[in-house]
Amino acid sequence: MVKARFQKVAGLLMVAAAGMGGVALLMLIDAGTAGISMVAAADTVSGKDWTPPENPDPQTILNEAQADAKAKRYEIALAKQVWFHENALSLNQAMTGVRLSFALSNWESLGRAYPPALAKLQSIRDGLQERAMKGEDLMSAFADLAAINRTLGEDSRTSEAFRALDTLNPKAAKMAIFYVKPALVKSKDYDLYLKYTDVKRDYLQMRQLYELNMQMVEDKKFGPNLADFAKKSFRNGSATLIAILAVSDRKQEASDIASLAKKQIDDPDFHKELDAALTGTIPKAFP
Prior knowledge:
Layout: H1 2-8, E1 12-17, E2 25-30, E3 35-38, H2 58-70, H3 74-91, H4 96-99, H5 102-113, H6 115-134, H7 138-152, H8 155-168, H9 170-186, H10 190-195, H11 199-216, H12 224-247, H13 251-264, H14 268-278
Antiparallel strand pairs: 1-2, 2-3
Helix pairs in contact: 2-3, 3-5, 5-6, 6-7, 7-8, 7-9, 8-9, 11-12, 11-13, 12-13, 12-14, 13-14
C-alpha cells in the first residue's frame, strides 16, 4: 500500500542537497518513474564528510541517497541510507512503511553494487536479533529484523530467531508473532504459527482491516489502488490461515473460517481459492 501510494505521487520534486563541498546539487525527481535528471553535479564527498542539513527532511535525504547510488557515489549514499534508517521515525512517524519497504529495497540494491552497504545492513540485522533475544525493544526489533531479512531473501533467519524466542521467552514470542508470520509460512513452521494464533480473532482482525480500508476508498486520496490492495490482502490472508489449519488437521476450524470469508466477498474466483486452501494449498504470499 505504501509503495502504491508513493508511486501515485505526481509531478516533479525539486530537491536541494546541502553540505556537499559547498556545491549545490539539484535533482528533478519524477515520483512516478523514479527517473532522475542531474542538473548540476556536486563535488565528490565521502560518507564520513556528509552530515545532515539543519532541519533535515527524511524523504528528501532518502531521495538523495537513491540519486547518489545511481551516480555511483556509493559511500555517501550509504551514509544517507543509514541516517534515514536511524532517524526517520523520530522526525516523521508516517515514514514507518517507507522505512521498512522502499528504503530497504534501495539499500539492498546499493549493497549489490557496493558490498560495504550490504555488510552494514547485515550488521544492523545481526544487532537487532541480539536485542530481540534479550527482550530489548522487542516489537521494534522484530519488526525491523523481519523486514530486513525479507528484503535480503533470508526469511529463514527470522524463523530461526523466533523459534529461539519461543524457547527462551514464550510471553515475548506472543508479542512478536505479528511480525514473523510470513516467515513462518515460508519455512512451513505451521505448528509454531498456530501456537501463537487465535484463529477466530485473527480472521476477525483481517475482516475489520478489510472493511476499514474499503471505507477509506471513498477518500479521493486513496481511491481504487487501496481497494485492490484491501481485497488482495484479505483474500490472501484468509486463504493462508485456512490452508494452514487444513494441513494441521484442524479441518473444522478451516471450514468455519472459509464459510465466513465466502460471505464476506461473494466472488467465484475467491471461493475457488478458499476451496483450494481447504485441501491444504498454501497461496503465494502477498504482497
